[in-house]
Specification:
Layout (H helix, E strand, L loop, with lengths): L1 E2 L1 H10 L4 E6 L2 H17 L4 E6 L7 H8 L8 E7 L5 H13 L5 E7 L10 H9 L1 E5 L4 H14 L2 E2 L2 H11 L3 H15 L2 E2 L2 H7 L8 H9 L3 H13 L4 H23 L4 H7 L4 H13 L2 H18 L7 H12 L15
Parallel strand pairs: 1-6, 2-5, 2-6, 3-4, 4-5, 7-8
Amino acid sequence: MQLRPNQLQVALNKNIAPVYFISGDEPLQLGEAADAVRKAAQQAGFQTREVLTVDTGFNWNQLSYSASALSLFSEQKLIDLRLPTGKPGKDGAKALVDYCQKIPEDTLLLISSGKVASATLKSRWYQALDKVGVMVRVWPLEADELLNWLGQRMKNRGLQTDRRGLQVLAERVEGNLMAAAQEVEKLYIANGPGTIQSQQIQDDVVDNSRYSVFKLVDAILAGKPLRVTKILRGIRAEGVVEPIVLWAITAEARLLAKLQSLISNGQRQEHAFKELKVWSQKQQLLAQALQRLNSRDVDQILLMCAQADRQTKGQEVGDSWETIMQLCLIFAGVEVIQPRATPILN
């Protein structure tokens, strides 16, 4: 049975299925959905939990062994299987099919998985899980979905605001649900339950640094290299880590690539904005970037984002902050002489 994340709790309140498969690449929704299953299982009497993590060298016989092993402390057991790659492999596929063909009594299997490919949905092991259990696929939230999620999140904390207030909050977090959850908690701590005006959200939801990453993105899109340089230096001085900066820049570059693709295929710019659900406040900045950059420029920016990411992880020689500065300037329309490529470390 297929469920959306916001349908899971209602289903859990009705009954507990023998198998839950939760997949996706949005960590907050994925984690909270898995937590909901664990909590419901515990309330239903599954007091013993065994965690299995599928990594290099994992023996899938552990699944059948865990399912057949008796617990000394509880008659009901939760097997918490972690599948980060979303790919069980040949042995894993067979083990999952075998498990579904003979589900152990008093055992609940929870699988938390990375995003699965579309082709995987037709695989034998996925179909076997779907037949006996509950499948929850987590997707990043955009536009109205994000506003609804924020509204429900605030409601859960006894907070209310109007649509403009939700938009202000959404613009700040730019789809990062972990950041959004933290901001809602900050609003609750600062104001307590009740109604919060949009201006109050604007004032309270401040960035962690003097120069925000979002201001950096706006300066990049507007093609203001001097301001880009100033803000980026300020961000670095304030201790903001590279992955946060790269996340914001990469998201804008990918959005720009999608817009370019739609427009090159004959779609009008305003229609492309509408299809990709671009906020009206952002359209003018993106329009400036579209005039300034071609598809090769955007491809270069994305490649440099990946290069900087490898540098932050020690997988490639070079200064990640220097690479970030260069790609930001290219994004802002400055011609930058590229240094010779550095080797990737093993």
